[in-house]
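Q: Hi! First time doing this. I have a protein sequence and I read that you can turn it into a structure. Is that right? Here it is:
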Amino acid sequence: MTKSELIIKEIQDNIDSDDGDTFYIAEEGIPLYIGNQKATIAYCGSEIELEWKTTPPRGDEIYSGRLSLLGRELPFWLYGRNLIFLDAYYLLAETVEIGTWSPITSVLINIHTGKYASLEHWYNNILIEENGVKLKNDYDGSSRMLTDVGQLQWVKLE
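A: Yes, that's right. Below is the predicted 3D structure, encoded as structure tokens:
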């Protein structure tokens, strides 16, 4: 089996498990898909805990998020699909306001400092390139190249 096939099998095994609480170790640039009631994701010395909240009519579970080592709750919910860790600090996630499942907005979360920045649009197609991260929405065609996270409007979790 290739590395990708092994990762997909591991993800499917985790989804099929009945315990509802799963521990993942994320790898940079490899999307995670969570299908459990509760999950903890470890990445580069930090952790994010996800707890299932709802499943929208079109599928894909939605979770609340907590940066456990910082003791901070995220002020939005996250889809459990296409969670991508970038560099040693960031999680790129598809998010919604608490209590909703739409509209979806991509958010970059610094899991070490507890800051987050909205990308002000939903990008479901992520490509990591040498000079940055290419973000694209396959449904409306909009795209963006993320090269400098310092230019984003960061908000600190309270």
